[in-house]
Amino acid sequence: MDLTTMPTPAGPLTIVVDDEGAVLASGWTTDPGELVHLVAPDLRGDGSLKERRDLGPVTGAAVRYLEGDVLAIDDIDVRQRSGPFRSHAWDVLRGVPPGAPVTYAELAAKAGRPAAVRAAAGACGFNAAALFVPCHRVVRTGGGMGGFRWGLDVKRWLLAHESGSPGPAAGTGGGAPLTAG
To answer: What is the tally of structural domains in the chain?
Structure first.
């Protein structure tokens, strides 16, 4: 597995990819261990990690996203493993457009199980590939933020970024350059 950590206005973003360049995990942390344990064991290979400055198309897509092309991440290959509903919910999440958040109930309905609101929330909670599988685009009924593994400040920043609102910088990365580090 290869990884890179890049500065973002919401704090440092670490991305882990497999040998084919598919995203296995990503999140606002500098600790790869926080991400590797989220990757399904059969996707970890030998478990070794190699830090790289550039992950090719993945890094490029993340930089373009941060520069304002919020659709840049849509075509990046992501690999996660789980049961049928959760895997399908992750696919559905990839179709939620930026700037148009859905509720957990709407995600459950879009995933074909309207009564499975808790399962939809679980799909968000167990999502290893934050940003690339945009679970941050799911909010509570009534507009509350809900949860986010990487913190509500990061979620707020992502939602504001995708809606075109400037919003305050989140975390410790405010004002950081938008290039791979």
So the answer is: 2
